[in-house]
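Appendix C reproduces, verbatim, an entry submitted by the partner laboratory led by Prof. M.T., so that reviewers can inspect both the input and the predicted structure.
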Amino acid sequence: MSERAQRRRAFALGALLALALLLRLAAALAAGERELRGDEGYYVGAATEIRDHGTHPGAFRPPGYAAFVAAVLWLTGDGLGAVRWAQALLSLVVVVAVFDIAQRRFGTGPAAASALLCATSPTLVHYTQTFWSETLVTTGLCLLVWSFDVLDRNGRTAWAVVTGLVLGLSALTREMYLYFAPLVALCLVLGPRDQRRRRVRHGALLLGTSCLVLLPWAVRNYQAYGRFELSTNRWYPIALGTLPARDGTLLGLPDERRLIAAYNEIDDPAAAEEMARGLAVTQIVAQQPWWIFRKAVRSTYFLFAPVSQLTRFVERGWLLADHPGYGRWLVRAELAHYVVLMLLGIGGLWLVPGGRTQLLVAALVLFHLAIYVIANANHRFRVPLLPLFALYAGPMAYLRIARGPYQRARMFGAAACGAAFVLIVGAGGELHTGRRHAAEPPVADPLDDGQ
């Protein structure tokens, strides 16, 4: 790279980081002090337990995010405001990782476009101000793709260890990534035959490193519960995902409150999981033979529908209550940004050349979708995927389209997936406004006897 090109690259990245930090500062000022919502209470409570007593309460979720919050609280001696700032700074890593991958493969212009989408995403900015694990998970996935891309380009054994380390830490934050590890190794192994032996060795080293990261937590749970596991939260999301819609329609919202309350009342994790398993199996059997097809439609819809936590916070007065006009503008800006990012990203994943790194990103998207089809899905779960789509949205905007014998098939795939996304956005229009399901008739309680 010439000196001029290096200066251009450094200036572009510096400007993007400054913009990203400025937006996150504005979000911090807008968020202010507020009550904890939903799972935020669980994460903050677990972090406080780790900071004060050095132990993680139970094993409902892996300890990654709670440990991160506890470390920030311990290091700063400050309140939750310090955690927000730590997450804001952590989210800048996403901008850097996306920019670096795209710049090396497509040039500075497409890289700047991809990183700009990450820097200005209202969704990614908003989540730095909440106490959910999304910011940490998103950063981990971007670092996984980045380290994989470096390993794919230079083939050095040390980067197989780094990639395995990042994968293991991601699984310590969200258990599902443990089951993605074999796919990472497979994406790495695929390639020229003359390099197969070295790639197999790197794949084995990657898997071994990730397992070593997880081993202490698995041993701790074995001593506590008599079995090796990363969490006791397996059948619970599956049970949530089988609940019928309140209005009886295919895309209606389920009423999860009774199940959540019943699950939380059971102190024994094994008994709670058994209750969730029984409900899930009963509902799955009752919904045959169309259960998996209905789930595929519902989960895809709920994962990508144009509703968000930002919408919820603004409409319920938890954010910008004194400035409702600005809140409504922000919600509309988030929707427009999301639609542009996804349409360009979907097209880019199909049409932009990317080698094994692109194969890994496509596998990650499909893996997430498969997990959420089996379990449950909502808009929070798509947050880590947004930078992955942004990675190929920038090159797509610059028309870095691959040429080859499968181009017509790729264009058809891009058009079909883009059309499906447009249908989801259209169908979710009322849901996005918060007016849908305002007065729905009750349905039979799945926890009642005989259900």
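DSSP finds 20 helices and no strands in the chain. Additional entries are available on request from the coordinating office.
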